[in-house]
Amino acid sequence: MLRKGDLTQGGITGTLLRFTLPMMVGSFLQQCYNIADTLIVGQCIGAGALAAVGSAYTLMVFLISVLLGLAMGSGTVFSLHYGAGNQVALRRSIFSSFVLIGIVTLILNVAVFLWLDPILRLLQVPRDIYSMMRNYLWIIFCGIVFTFIYNFYAALLRAVGDSVTPLWFLAVSVVLNIALDLFFILQLDWGIEGAAVATVIAQGAAALGIVIYAYRHRPELRWRRDDMCFDRTCLKEIASFSTLTCIQQSVMNLGILMIQGLVNSFGTAVMAAFAAAVKIDSFAYMPVQEFGNAFSTFIAQNFGAARYDRIRQGVRSAFVTAVVFSLLVSVLVFVFAEPLMLVFVRPDEAEIIAVGVAYLRIEGAFYCGIGILFLLYGYYRAIRMPGMSVVLTVLSLGTRVVLSYWLASMPEVGVTGIWWSIPVGWLIADVVGIWYYRHVLGARGS
């Protein structure tokens, strides 16, 4: 009998795409939280506010990546137990990971409030936007608990094959966010602080909605009194997957944060261009990122069910799909780079537009590299080798950071060197990941 959310049965490509589509839409909507702030702030307040929100977003992503990494790692464990049909282990792992990530959230929240100013100074935030960025971040991190709750339950539902439900609550919260953005900024004139308040309220709505749904409609995922214990084996498994995935996400975003600091040193115009271009970038490769996450759930369930033949077929199908889609998106971004920048930047900001277009046409031409890398991350995480995902992340981001600082220091190259370092990092990690899959795992018969 086919269980709800079972990815170990049925056609492979169709199953993957049907499972991925709601995740893609959900990721698109989640991007809209900051996109709405960036677009409305950039058009209604100005370039300084745009630079502040864009730079704040990079810091937010780095800090929240700790929670997302823990949730993703836990989700892999949930998928493995669900695929194996072990309901007791599933419920106990849900309880253990919820407590673990909740404690980390509390520690992270306190740390942010204590060290926010030293972090902003380290990032070389220009004096003219320092106070705006600080106020925005202070409010945003007052709602970090909502980020934890929503992403934990979204990861749980996706792990058991339900990628649709998180989408509905996210959709409602995004609409609420945009409406509150317009009300607080245009009607109440709260400025950049209004955008932050709107985001926190909207995230709170998503968190509350998904918790109520999970409690009422998925009783098999609700832990019982005898599940509320910290079994050593369960804790070890959760800690292993969650910590390594957390490290992977943190390393990834630490590298991006270091790049942000380098970009900031080139001034407000480059900061604003980078802020807008990164939003476009996020949208462009977001579908293959979510495809990689869906692929990871697919592999994990089949790995738990020992369906190794299905895993090999899934790998081939996923790689072809990711490459074709990435090439198509690269062409679109290259051709429409300038109109895309104009969505976020006023037409009279010629310097900002020119810098953003250069970024998109260099980096955007190589989305195939990041598409393959997302699949490799998901695959190694799902087959109980999250350490390999960390290795690939370090290779990719390490190359990008070192190359960026080296090239940007050359007057004849400048900021363009930062853009070229990105696809080079992707390529190196892809080559290593594919080589390991073919020659090491292949030799083992994995």
TrEMBL record:
GO biological process, one term: monoatomic ion transport
Coiled-coil region: none
Localization in the cell: Cell membrane
GO MF annotation list: antiporter activity; xenobiotic transmembrane transporter activity
InterPro entries recorded: MATE_fam, MATE_MdtK, MdtK-like
GO cellular component term of the entry, any: plasma membrane
The protein, known as: Multidrug-efflux transporter
